[in-house]
């Protein structure tokens, strides 16, 4: 990141200007900011038109011959440095993170409660966690997503896990242009050494990263770009792509990926050492926006589905089996009663500008624990009535009466029977 430095206005249109600085070899060696160099270059290229003598000494700074030879090279190096940083998806300087240890996401046990349609109505009884959305590469509060915070909810039914992402945002949609539409991603830790930072954190380069050189750094990723996805319709795993043995989605770009670092990401079933036909896309999902007035269902011809810029809330809803048939370490596996680690990313075309891959917002600067709760506690809470009704009381009374009758009958059947003595009269003679 370049720091903005005050540049003397020696290119001002005022006739009375401060004396321009003299640039020497020692000045360049000591360092000069890109903004100052840019200002100097502009002055050299376009001197003040109000000065009649274009060769006047005040029209440009005095540059020593040695410094003049080094100036173009220095400008070239400065212009290349930000390009390399963006292309490599890496931050400048040391990475630091102050994560709140109390932050967690709980997947409550809700059997038969969630319909995967992109709507959030059936989630009203599920408690969510609210997060500020900060740039993933520079988590500065001053650069927080302006639309609002993201609410993340999770639930499971004992077989599948469900997620709802809810975030405010003006409606933006451009058919076929994913970077002009919002996009979301979920990431989960697979390998024990996989870090949130650098998407697994494998330090091996893109030409040598494999499941052996990056063993232990695996992360599971689901990415949904809605540029070709109809609101309310299901996307993700489908028979055609799953039959080919990969995690792709040719219809709506809800894809199942894995990775070891930002440089080494692949669709499930593909990789640097060849493909594996046993993989598949285990995710399904849908999206919605609260500004939509049609609830009977959209078709592709209805695009763009609403007017651009309308205020509202985006809903992204996903599901996946708790356990998958993955055998090549490309899917995270969830266990009821245990915790996993996850993160959520969000892309948005801020001010109508297309987003780029590394320009996403994130809910946290580190992993967030995901707790897959046990079903027993939820069932107990659900089945605990506030008061007994008449049917319950009658059933209890009937049970008590039946028990008493049973005891009485058993007593009559098994009570000891005593024979009464009766003397016999015998006549003699």
Automatic annotation (TrEMBL):
The chain crosses the membrane at residues 393-414. It comes from the Eukaryota. It holds the Pfam family EB_dh. Coiled coil: none annotated. Keywords: Electron transport, Heme, Iron, Membrane, Metal-binding, Transmembrane, Transmembrane helix, Transport. The keyword Phosphoprotein does not apply. Residues 120-362 form the Cytochrome c-552/DMSO reductase-like haem-binding domain. GO terms for molecular function: metal ion binding. InterPro entries: Cyt-c552/DMSO_Rdtase_haem-bd. This is Cytochrome c-552/DMSO reductase-like haem-binding domain-containing protein.
């Amino acid at each position: 990141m370049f720091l903005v430095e005050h540049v003397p206005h020696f290119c001002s249109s005022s006739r009375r200007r401060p004396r321009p600085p003299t640039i020497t070899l020692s000045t360049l060696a000591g360092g000069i900011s890109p903004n100052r160099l840019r200002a100097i270059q502009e002055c050299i290229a376009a001197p003040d038109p109000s000065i009649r003598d274009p060769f006047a000494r005040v029209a440009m700074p005095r540059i020593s011959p040695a410094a003049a030879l080094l100036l173009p090279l220095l400008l070239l190096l400065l212009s290349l440095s930000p390009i390399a940083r963006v292309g490599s998806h890496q931050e400048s300087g040391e990475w630091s993170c102050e994560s709140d240890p109390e932050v967690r996401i709980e997947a409550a046990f809700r059997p038969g409660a969630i319909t995967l349609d992109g709507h959030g109505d059936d989630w009203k009884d599920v408690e969510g966690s609210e997060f500020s959305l900060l740039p993933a590469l520079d988590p500065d509060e001053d650069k927080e997503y302006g639309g609002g915070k993201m609410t993340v909810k999770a639930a499971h039914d004992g077989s599948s896990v469900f997620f709802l992402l809810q975030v405010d945002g003006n409606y933006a949609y451009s058919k076929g242009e994913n970077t002009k539409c919002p996009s979301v991603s979920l990431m989960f830790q697979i390998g024990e050494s996989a870090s949130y930072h650098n998407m697994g954190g494998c330090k091996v380069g893109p030409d040598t990263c494999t499941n052996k050189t990056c063993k232990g750094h695996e992360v599971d990723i689901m990415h949904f770009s809605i540029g070709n996805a109809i609101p309310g319709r299901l996307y993700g795993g489908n028979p055609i792509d799953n039959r080919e043995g990969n995690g792709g989605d040719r219809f709506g770009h809800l894809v199942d990926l894995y990775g070891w670092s930002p440089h080494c990401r692949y669709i499930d079933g593909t990789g640097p050492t060849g493909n594996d036909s046993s993989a598949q896309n285990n995710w399904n999902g849908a999206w919605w926006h609260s500004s939509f007035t049609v609830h009977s269902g959209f078709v592709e011809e209805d695009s763009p589905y609403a007017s651009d810029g309308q205020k509202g809330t985006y809903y992204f809803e996903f599901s996946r089996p708790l356990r998958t048939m993955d055998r090549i370490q490309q899917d995270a596996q969830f266990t009821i009663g245990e915790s996993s680690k996850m993160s959520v990313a969000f892309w948005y075309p801020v001010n109508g500008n297309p987003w780029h891959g590394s320009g996403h917002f994130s809910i946290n600067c580190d992993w967030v624990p995901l707790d897959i709760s046990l079903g027993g506690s939820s069932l107990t809470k659900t089945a605990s009535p506030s008061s007994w009704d008449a049917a319950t009381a009658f059933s209890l009374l009937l049970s008590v009466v039946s028990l008493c009758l049973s005891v009485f009958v058993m007593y009559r059947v098994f009570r000891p029977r005593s024979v009464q003595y009766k003397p016999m009269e015998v006549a003699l003679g």
